[in-house]
């Protein structure tokens, strides 16, 4: 079906509408063979709080952005190549229901659908697109994923030293390797994580010591069968989007 739609006028028109909604600030999305599979609003668990974001699933990329005017205008476009994506379901926890993790080497985050059916459809379509892409390219799924950042609200004290309380003066930081919320003294060091940045990035002392000794696996983000469980374990690493690089999140 995807191959049949690739060169159809309807598909070309739909992609053009998405491009126009992002305006001149967005990247061109029309290329030969690209098909818009579906679109919808998902709640993205951002650093400060959950926020509604518009998502577009293509057969090779996942695109999302901030909603300015629903179905008319979006900004802060993000494009994620699907061949680098893996997804994991998240168990329902309180008001956060129907969620899953979108994990890539560069960025990982949690999203939530309005219903269980919508969640299932999104996950099935994403998995199908990823499987088809990898099958055509002969590549293997990526084993390296950026940590999902623990939301600020989940930590009133540093998740490493367990002592420093966060205040307007003693602000929160995120380790780019494990995703934990940590204090300044526990995250003064920088380390080069090529999949995330061309420059050394902030990491906590715990991860720095492990990375410096070559013990990479110990501070890898956990696979996450349960997002909430990862927030309760001091050695599991998960969480959200990079607010320092993207002030909207």
From TrEMBL:
Keyword vocabulary terms for this entry: Endoplasmic reticulum, Endosome, Membrane, Metal-binding, Protein transport, Transport, Zinc, Zinc-finger
Membrane topology: Peripheral membrane protein
One GO cellular component, as annotated: early endosome membrane
Residue ranges that the Swiss-Prot or TrEMBL entry lists as coiled coil: none
Compositional bias ranges of the Acidic residues kind: 238-249
Superkingdom, natural source: Eukaryota
PH domain sequence ranges: 35-131
Region (Disordered): 221-249
The keyword Transport is annotated on this UniProt entry: yes
Key word Endoplasmic reticulum present: yes
Molecular-function GO term, any one: zinc ion binding
Residue span(s) of domain FYVE-type: 152-212
InterPro entries in the record: PH-like_dom_sf, PH_domain, PH_domain-containing_F, PH_Phafin, PLEKHF2_FYVE, Znf_FYVE, Znf_FYVE-rel, Znf_FYVE_PHD
Pfam families, A to Z: FYVE (PF01363), PH (PF00169)
Entries under PROSITE patterns matching the protein: PH_DOMAIN (PS50003), ZF_FYVE (PS50178)
Biased composition (Polar residues): 221-233
Stored Gene3D superfamilies: Pleckstrin-homology domain (PH domain)/Phosphotyrosine-binding domain (PTB), Zinc/RING finger domain, C3HC4 (zinc finger)
Subcellular location per the Swiss-Prot or TrEMBL entry: Early endosome membrane; Endoplasmic reticulum
An individual GO BP term: protein transport
Subunit structure as annotated in this protein's UniProt entry: May interact with EEA1.
Biological role: May play a role in early endosome fusion upstream of RAB5, hence regulating receptor trafficking and fluid-phase transport. Enhances cellular sensitivity to TNF-induced apoptosis.
Name under which the protein is recorded: Pleckstrin homology domain-containing family F member 2
Species for this entry: Macaca mulatta (Rhesus macaque)
Gene responsible for this protein: PLEKHF2
């Amino acid at each position: 079906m995807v191959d049949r739609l690739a060169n159809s006028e309807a598909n070309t028109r739909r992609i053009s509408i998405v491009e126009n909604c992002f305006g001149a600030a967005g990247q061109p999305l029309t290329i030969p063979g690209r098909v818009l599979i579906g679109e919808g609003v998902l709640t993205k668990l951002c650093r400060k709080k959950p926020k509604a974001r518009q998502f577009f699933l293509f057969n090779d990329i996942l695109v999302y952005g901030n909603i300015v005017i629903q179905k008319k205008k979006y900004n802060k476009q993000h494009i994620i190549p699907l061949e680098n994506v893996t997804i994991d379901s998240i168990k329902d926890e309180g008001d956060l229901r129907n969620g899953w993790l979108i994990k890539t080497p560069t960025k990982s985050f949690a999203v939530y659908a309005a219903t269980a059916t919508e969640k299932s459809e999104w996950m099935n379509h994403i998995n199908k697109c990823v499987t088809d892409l990898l099958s055509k390219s002969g590549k293997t799924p990526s084993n390296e994923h950026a940590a999902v950042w623990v939301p600020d609200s989940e930590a009133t004290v540093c998740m490493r030293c367990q002592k420093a309380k966060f205040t307007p003066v003693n602000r929160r930081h995120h380790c780019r390797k494990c995703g934990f919320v940590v204090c300044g003294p526990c995250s003064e060091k920088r380390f080069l994580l090529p999949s995330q940045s061309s420059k050394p990035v902030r990491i906590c002392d715990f991860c720095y010591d492990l990375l410096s000794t070559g013990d990479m696996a110990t501070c890898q983000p956990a696979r996450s069968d349960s997002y909430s469980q990862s927030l309760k374990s001091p050695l599991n690493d998960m969480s959200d989007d990079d607010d320092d690089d993207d002030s909207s999140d």
